[in-house]
Each structure stands twice: as structure tokens, then as C-alpha cells.
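From the pipeline queue, job 12 of 40. The input is one protein chain; the requested action is below.

Action: predict structure.
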Amino acid sequence: MLFSSNRAKSVKPSATVSINGKATQLKAQGVDIINLSVGEPDFDTPDSIKKAAIRAIEAGKTKYTAVDGIPELKDAIIQKFKTENNLSYTRDQILVSCGAKQSIYNLAQAVLNEGDEVIIPAPYWVSYPAIAALAGAKPVFVSASIENRFIITAEQLEKAITPKTRLLILNSPSNPTGMAYRESDLKALSSVLLKHPNVLIITDDMYEHIVWGIDPYVNILNVCPELAERTIVCNGVSKAYAMTGWRIGYAAGPSDIIKAMTKIQSHSTSNPTSISQYAAVAALQGEKEFIANLKIVFKERHDFIQKKLSAIPGVVCPPADGAFYVFPNVEKAIARQGLKNDIALAELILEKAHVAVVPGT
């Protein structure tokens, strides 16, 4: 007999994982698949980072570390925030986790109670609502239109906030749209948030280095430092340094919230992998040229695919500001093919063209 908790039942299977699974199955059958279903750079981790990991192994850095991360990595993260984001933190305001996903999961478990509401701008990364639901909270979706660059407005945010609102999630540039919040957008949202002191904010900055549509990159704390006492910045090394499998993310924020998140992590994974932590130090301290080249390549790819998609009848594909995603509107293409929805279109593309894509719904 299969036993399943209400928490498990509250979470829907990921469409990304489903499509990727089908693509993997076809590959195993010998079919040549172009897999665009997983948000992962196809570059190898730079040699300097791999060598730092090897040195750590050879030096015996293979034991447990502090739950919240080694001091060297915390200091590298603090320096990164200072030089790249003009934000100041201390060690007790930093938590290193097994990827930024765990950072966000830790936060949800640390601050959300049953019945709390979490505002999630849509389109959104598939894990945000699941993380909220697993903490007993209710995801509240605010739909951003293609006409507004998939950016929610201050008016929409104000309307979505209720006495139960506990958390707002901002992701810029966004997975899956690639759109970024500009300074003016964030100032408008900040003016609303300042009126609601009980609302916490996550700014998920994972794609901050892969951006070309805005200059300079800013997050909500850059435009409104007054929100520092209730804002948690989440980031990691996965995307910018092609280290998805190394599983290192980090969060920065008020020390009392970070302490609560650390307590949660101490009873799940404990510390992130020691070897990966030393590799992340090398990444944050040395790989600026790699990031610059990465951005050039992703911009070239973006321009190519955005132009090609826009040329297809029935497809509207706005140019993105960054990351490595585009989010086309394919409603007319679905209708022209006589299909039920975007999932059916994704399956058709995989079957006929051997290209794996993710349904937008």
C-alpha cells in the first residue's frame, strides 16, 4: 500500500522533470535529442575551480563543516556582495546551502506558518509554489502580461497583499521569461512594500551575471535599502560558473532570519559538501573572465533563437533581458495545429523535431 502525506499530495509533479525524463528516454533509444528542458549551462566548470576542489580533497578537506558554511566561503560571499552589489553583510548574516533552491526552501520553512500567503509573480519558476505549499502556505499568483514585459506592477502588488501575506518572491532576470526588473520597476514595488511592514521579500538573483537588457543590474535593496531588515537575497554559483552539479547556493539577510534558516538546515542536510564549498571560494574570487565570455555566448544564442521563433507564424517571442530563456506566446500556433494546449505542443515538438521544450503552463 502506498502511503502519501498531505504535504506530498499538495505538490504537483514538475513539467520540466517530466519532459526531461521523456527526452532522456528517447536518447537512451538512440534518438538524437536537443534538450532545452533544463536550466543548465552546457559549459564545463572552469579548470581553476576544479583544481581548487582537487586541492581540497588532497588536503583532507573532506570532513563535516559548520552547518552554515566554511568561514572562507562566507567571506568570499560577503566580498562579492560588497564589490558587485554594494551590499554589506557579516558572517552571521550568511547561510551557505546545497543550492539556492535549498536556501529558498529553508527560508519558507523558517518564516511561513499554516495559512500564510506567498505572492508569486507569474510566469514563475516551477519550484516556488511547491516550496510555499510544503511550508503550509498558500501561493498567490499575480499574472504579469507580455505587454508589460512579464513584470508585475505596483498596482497589482497592492491588490494582491492581504492581512495574510507573509512573503513576496522576486526573481530577476526571471526563470522562465528572462525579463528583469528595472530600477523604476523596483522603486514602484518598494513604495508599496514600505506600507506593509509584515511582508518579507526574497530577491532571487541567480541570473544577475547573465544580463544585457538592463545596465546596471539592480535588486530591490539597491533601490530601497530601507527594506534590508526584511529582505533575503538568494544566489549561488550554479549558473554564472557552470557549477549546477556542485550544489552551492547562499542566502544573505537579517541575522535572526538566517539563524532560523540555519536551524532548519541543521536537521536536513547539515552542511553543504565541503569540497564544493572550497571550489565555490575559487569561483567567487577568480572567475570574472569566464562570466564575461558566458554572457557573450548566451546573448548570441538568445538573439538567434528569438529571431527564429519570431519568424514562425503564430508565435510571439519578446526579446529577454538576460538569463538563458525565452518565453514565447504560442496560442495561435497551438490553434493552427489543432492541439489541446501547450503540453500537447511540447510533446509534438519532442516527437517530430526531437527538441525538448518546457510548457509555459
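Job complete. The domain at 6-44+289-356 is CATH 3.90.1150.10 (Aspartate Aminotransferase, domain 1).
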